[in-house]
Amino acid sequence: MNDYMINNFFSACLALTVVFSGCSKTGSGKSTNKPVSAVTYYVDSQNGNDSKTGCSEGEAWQSLSRLQQTSLHPGDSIRFRRGSSFTGPLRISASGTADHLIVLTDYGNAADPAPAFTNPVFKRDNFGNAIRISGSYVCVENLYCYTTAAYVAGTYQTDGWPVWEMGAIHIARGAKYCVVRNNEIYDCVAGIKSNGEHTRISNNYIHDCNRVLKEWDWGPIGIWFGSDYQEADHNRIFNYRAEDPRIRWKSGIGGGADGGAFEIDDARNAKSHISIHDNYTRDCQGFLEVTWSDVVSNAQYTGLKIYQNVSDDYQQFLALWAGKDCEIDNNTIVRRKVNVNDWGVFNIAQNDSRNKIRNNLIITEKNIPIYNTGLNANHFPKDIIRHNLYYAASGSLVMGKEGPGESPAYGNPQLVNYENARQAEDFAITAGSPAVDQGEDLGFSSDFMQTPIPQGAGPDIGAYEFK
Questions:
Q1: Does the predicted model carry a pTM greater than 0.90?
Q2: Count of helices and strands (H, E) across the chain
Q3: Percent of the chain whose predicted confidence (pLDDT) is above 70
Q4: What is the H or E stretch that residue 209 is in?
Q5: What is the pLDDT of residues 120-155, one digit of tens each?
Q6: Residue 262 — φ and ψ, nearest 5°?
Q7: Is the C or the N end of the chain the one with fewer CB within 10 Å?
Q8: CA of residue 182 relative to chain centroid, distance
Q9: Spatial separation of the C-alpha atoms in residues 402 and 383, rounded to whole Å
Q10: Which domains does the chain carry?
Q11: Is residue 285 over pLDDT 70?
């Protein structure tokens, strides 16, 4: 999905969130971008009534079951009153169009809690999803999902592994061009799972899940990709990890801790054009893991773009078991947290993968290695490594087999608030940082905070441009 498609697609989602007062047909126009037949429905779990029309705030329905009896069409909106609470799954199988998305959003007093969705049940055809989207061109925004069910052993008929059907917000295979944005997700073992191409996952707050997704070999996952042509940007993912001595993987290696902010898997299908950028993650069991073996082995993952992220996590920034010609650029990476399982900063296993690792600001503590190359001395990724900054805030700087690459920089990067960092802005560089003007020009026009690049003689190293 190119930038032009993304921007126009996202603009359509914005235009479709206008409040309408009734179910009468509304003409299309620049202000609403709605087709003639578009309808807005209202659902209020506290004061609604399923015998009413659902076509205005005063005529709101009460239940998801009443909503599920309604046929949706391109341009329709479903608005859930703030302060409402629902037990799912809410299933949306209808599709919008590129110009007229179907939108799930909120209404009511902004001071009230966002509409809340949960699902405590995991069984066949009900995989703990709070919201399940199987239609295309659907936008889910401004909602709250919480405490969804973990995997329960059983016999399931699914397309692949049953765990791939999970996700508090789940985009099913075959659904395309969906948007998931501005939602809060709390204590959901799989936050957002997207098997749909051209999905954009943006500006969500996903936090605080320390439960296993499946006993005892899966930890919780914030955002989970199962197909290509997808984008995740400007999300915050905090405290997604499970630590338990019973966690043991089928391979027998590792164990004791699992989970992470992002994961890419399903080796049955080759993957490309996945972009993960401008996200802030903290206290997760790794920033990103890209698997190579599940139902089948030897997946072909190419051209992943991972840039301008801020990561202050456990285990690793990138575990790339399979993946070549990927671009890992201008990230600010802090590896100072250690638990029972640790893979360094970059754990890249595929031989001759020639991934590009450029302009990253890397801080380590506790002798954590930087280039771990798959925990195996026989792996030779032959990565292209240039213009990275390395600093050991404590302990020794352990470079690993492939580093430091061309034109490295060293020294204290002079962050705003390294010791007590609790927000993304704490990781910005300050005057005198050895990262200033030392980056390679990779064509980025702005940084994590939308500051134009460059501000000086050249681009800076890391996610932030010094202003």
A1: yes
A2: 2, 39
A3: 91
A4: strand 205-209
A5: 999 988 999 999 999 999 999 999 999 999 999 999
A6: -130, 150
A7: C
A8: 12
A9: 7
A10: 3-413 (2.160.20)
A11: yes
C-alpha closest to that of 361 among 420, 310, 327, 305: 310
Strands 126-127 and 122-123: antiparallel
Q: Are 465 and 458 in contact (CB under 8 A)?
A: no
Best CA proximity match to 142, nearest among 83, 214, 100, 59: 83
**CA angle in degrees (0–180, nearest 5) for 120-123-125:** 110
Q: Whose structure tokens read 């990779």?
A: 442
Residue 252 class from Cβ within 10 Å (0-12 exposed, 13-18 middle, 19+ buried)? exposed
Alpha helix positions (H), 49-106 = 64-68
> What are the tokens at 448?
């994590």
Place of tokens 């900054």: 389
What is the rounded average pLDDT of the residues 389-416?
96
Q: pLDDT at residue 17 above 50?
A: no
Average pLDDT of the chain? 91
Contact assessment for residue 284 and residue 222, using Cβ atoms and an 8 Å cutoff: yes
Preceding omega of 74 cis (within 30 degrees of 0): no
